[in-house]
Amino acid sequence: MRLLLVVSLWLAPAALAQHPFAVGSRAYDPRVPAPRAVIGHEVGERFTPHHAVVRYFERVAATSPRVHLDTLGLTVEGREYLTAVVTSERNHARRDAIRADAAQLADPRRVDDATLEAILGRMPTIVLLTYTVHGNEASGTEAALATLYELAASTDPAVVRLLDSVVVLIDPIQNPDGHERHVQDVLRRRSVFGADATPNAFATQSAWPGARTSHYHFDLNRDWFIQSHPETRARVGYFFQWWPHVVADLHEMGSNATYFFAPPMEPINKNVPPSVLRWWEIFASANGAALDALGRPYFRREGYDEFYPGYGVSWPILSGAIGMTYEQASSGAGAIQRNDGTILTLREAAENHYLTSMATVRTAALARRARLQDYLADRRSASRPEVGPRAIYLAVEPGGRTDSLIALLERNRVEVQPARTLPADATAYPHTRGRHEGMLYVVDLAQPQGRLARALLEPDAQLDSSFIREELERRRTAQSSRFYDITAWSLPMTHGVRAWTSAGAPVVREQRVLAGGVRQGGGIVGTVPAAHGYAFHPGNEAALRLLAALLRDSVRVHFATRPFTAGGMAFDQGAFVVRVAANGVRVHELVQQAATAAGVPAYALRSALVESGTDLGSNSVIPLPVPRVALLAGAPVNGNSYGFAWYTFEQRLGLPVTSVDAAFIAGGGLRDFTVLVMPSAGALGPALGEAGLQRLQHWVRDGGTLITLEQASAWLASEASGLSRLRVRRPAAGAPSVSANVPGALLRAHGDSLSPLLAGIPPRDLAVLVSGDRAFEAPTDARGQEVVVRLAGKDALRLSGYLWPESWDRHAEGVWLWSERQGRGRVTAFATDPNYRDLTRALMPIFAHAVFFGAY
User: Fold this and answer.
1) Is 2-382 a domain of CATH 3.40.50.720?
2) Which of 33, 842, 55 is nearest to 494 (CA)?
């Protein structure tokens, strides 16, 4: 009898109700395992760890002919980053052909109309569903499990039909490292009685700094064009393999909210094509109907904008897709009591995301031809811009700054070409001065990625005057601002590359100025082995990577505090010198290897005698000690600021650091370190305590280098720190009481060319990113080189982004970088974070110099 039952089940054509969100008596392919059979619990009962999600996706791909699984790479912590391709068997048989068709639609410039019409007739809509870019917004991952099963196993004729019209890319965990932190935090604190719905209970709290962010504590939802992380680079690379037409990015928000979907609120980036606004309404109708069927509340046009181009939907929109943010109220640790007394569960949260996921797929399939036609029209119109400048010219800057910018643009599939000359109508960017006689590159905005190129490169992102008027009124009446993120990110400014716009089509060279990039190749230049030593230029990332590599290999490096010329090559103040006499017999080999790896030319020096300047045996050529760096971590440090610094040390400089907390300082642990970096942090005084403050003061005055960022600089600038004469600028008498928080603007700053912190860096027209209302004031007795970088006066302050009317006076001529002797040590304070999001790349060398040169 038991054998007969087993055989009957095996022969059964379908299984019923295999996931909790199934509608009615829908049937499923019994060969495909339901989520519960693999992950060990029903979807929505608890959060699913990364390994179980991977295992389930692998099992479904192995059993369903509708699913193909791609592993895109590994996270920093070594977790697989994967995406499932779900479509009909017929479409799977021609996956390569579909991708080829998608590429031709994405760049139709050299495709004839007949071919494009044929593609429109046969090609499915490509939909990308991305979940849980913030690790603690984990209901999306649970919804991804149910969505995968529904599309892979449902035998419902409507599902089977729609899969002929759509290819669905399911990215279940955009941030595997952060998601795993969240899951383990909750699992460790979970009661045997299930999720505790008490608001703010211990189970809902994550360990510092929370699970929202990546391994390096970056917000990956801001990383799409910066691409600092392997997860983002993998995702963007996969995007360009498929060129999706629809992208839904599924998030969570505060527990007392309901459900949000596009259209977003103002402001909307002016580079968003008009067709997107119409498609937002089409998808909104479908999402609303899906949630209405269960009586679930939702809203639109509030809380979330579409202005910053680095969001998980803004970047796809500017690359041709209909991008939409979906926000579900958070269930906390799996269940939470809300202000209205209701209990929101993980199951309900996941179901809402499942419903909108399926509505999105269904709508994209039903509207296939119309969506593809609009997509093609938008890509064509991007190649034929009718308003604004036609071209953006980029100067080839020393130190590889232009090379870094071009590499970033090319990773975003923005075409860059060498230019013949700067046209007569060229208009300089606000940070660009003087004529340019050297080599140039040009971005012709008449290209399929032209909208993204314009958004990333234009000197200012346009804001409607009506929006500004409304914001000023909201501010006057104490309402919240609709500025959701920064308002300035112009890449020529953040990279320190001079730039110009032009209305005409550019005249380009046939080949690059230098093969493989604009930076000179790395390695030793001149006769090897050098008789005296080797020198390389300061002021850029590559040189700093070379410096760090040499120091890691125990190579003794000096830096020249004065300029000199040797062997016909002029070196600025701060040039690095490796003496043969000060190092072992392997120095030639080590310099060669490190210079080649860093892409930096190291010039062989025949003699300590120079043609001009100070001879290289002078006491002004100072030995650089190997910095032993401690990085303050733990509460009350801002996790993002900590992560930005950590990333800079490990990924940009290649310099090891040790993370320590306030208790470590209080316990006297700094005696083993020469540098302490304090990221932005509040309440440092209570965290350090009296004993910790005294130990820190003694350590600095005994020769330590203290570097503070943003809010930590405000603490340093207080009398309570006892370590600096710098002060926070007070608001002017009679100033309005309204908030003057700058929503992320790029301001002009000028530096002291004599300071070693600016070695090799042009000291004028630096673009610094300023947020908030904090400004700093130098003392009246400030000495030379203490004010290293100062913001410009009111008439020249703004480079890009928005400033409130009161912000001009608040920040004009304020101190951005301060460096002060304290006993035998030094304190260096940055008013804002120079490592912010890995975006302000031109400022990173200044931060590195504060670390390497801090003792001088």
Assistant:
1) no
2) 842
